[in-house]
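User: Could you check the structure of this?
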Amino acid sequence: MILTWCKPGGSRGYVVTQAFTWDIGREGSDLKLHVPEGREFESSVPRSLQWLWSPHDPYFLKAAVVHDILLEDGNGAVFSDSQWFDAAHSAGAPGLKTWVAYFGMMGRRFLQWVWSRKGKPHV
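Assistant: Sure, the predicted C-alpha cells are below.
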C-alpha cells in the first residue's frame, strides 16, 4: 500500500502531506474533521505488542492521525477510539487485527479507570 497523504518525518514520526477531511460517524456526514497539510502525528503501539502490530503499518496511519487530533481537541477517549476503529476499517485494515487492537485500547482505558478508582468510596 503506497500512501500519498503522509510521509515519515517531523518530531512525532509522521507528517500529513495532503490535507483531507474525515467524515465522523459515516461517509457523507455533516460532522467533518479537517486534517491539515503539515499536521504531525504519531502511531502509538506498546513496545510489547510491536512484534504483532507495527506502528508504521499503513493501514492504521489514517486512524492514528484522526485519533490524535480528536484527543488533542478535547474529545473523549471512547469517542476518539471509535473513530480510530472506523478510520482503520475504511483504510482496509485487516478485520481481526483491527478488532483486537480496538478491544485492547478499550481494555486499557477500562483498567486505567479501575486503577483511578482505587481507594475511592463506592456510592
